[in-house]
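Exercise 7b. Backbone tokens:
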């Protein structure tokens, strides 16, 4: 699965998502885009978007998207706080479909 990590996540978190092709927003040439523009740009390029932005689902209409969204709820966005949640993120990636949101905590 092609997975895109939001800018607010450390690049090294990509290594924890084994079995997937993981890019970061800056690596994909999408750095600095506001969420609405970013969400439109993701479609067709990635199957999943991983973020820690808890407000994303409330701020944007997400139904009908061609990709899934995984929202990680961790104490901080530091790698040490995110790595223990990587197995749950992998599980969510396997179970969520296009236009669906999974919250991992």
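Sequence design result:
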């Amino acid at each position: 699965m092609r997975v895109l990590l939001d800018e607010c996540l450390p690049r090294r978190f990509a290594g924890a998502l084994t079995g997937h092709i993981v890019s970061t927003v800056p690596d994909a040439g999408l750095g600095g885009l506001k969420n609405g523009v970013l969400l439109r740009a993701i479609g067709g390029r990635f199957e999943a978007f991983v973020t820690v932005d808890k407000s994303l689902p409330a701020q944007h209409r997400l139904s009908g998207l061609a990709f899934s969204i995984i929202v990680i709820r961790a104490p901080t966005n530091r790698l040490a706080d995110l790595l223990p949640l990587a197995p749950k993120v992998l599980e969510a990636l396997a179970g969520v479909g296009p236009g669906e949101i999974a919250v991992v905590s």
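Instructor comment: Helices lie at 35-42, 56-59, 79-82, 86-95. The chain has one domain: 2-104.
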